[in-house]
Amino acid sequence: MKLPNILLTGTPGVGKTTLGKELASRSGLKYVNVGDLAQEGQLYDGYDEEYGCPILDEDRVVDELENEMREGGVIVDYHGCDFFPERWFHIVFVLRTDNSILYKRLETRGYNEKKLQDNIQCEIFQVLYEEARASYREEIVHQLPSNEPEQLEDNINQISKWIEQWVKDHNS
Length: 172
Fold this sequence. Notes:
172 residues, 51% helix, ATP-binding, Adenylate kinase isoenzyme 6, two-stranded antiparallel sheet, AMP kinase activity
């Protein structure tokens, strides 16, 4: 494997997609938004009436991604992470956003009140950070602040440096 696999996770609205797309365009790594992948391949297992969204078929998503992940050089973007095989990722970044900022972002997306409140609670209680820590080796899980445009640039620079170092360490 010549290039690393990276997981971007965190509560919906924290900026995973913005970061992932920009990082992919600058690094040459392939960007995969699991929500888009599921929609394109209809990788669903029903519909959640309460949240007004389809239910992801996690096994089919894993099957769909397996070959790409084995080759390496993939940035995966999804709010959940406990169903991905641990062997896939060399590093995991959990994006975090202040609740007042996150609330406005989710409100703009038109989330219903229950979905809005549940996602804010998820962020308050660091649910996805804890899920990542429980799913992967602690030393590969890192939190990144994602409140302002300047932080986006800082995060891209930090991850780009990490990618460069990983490539040097694994291809010499």
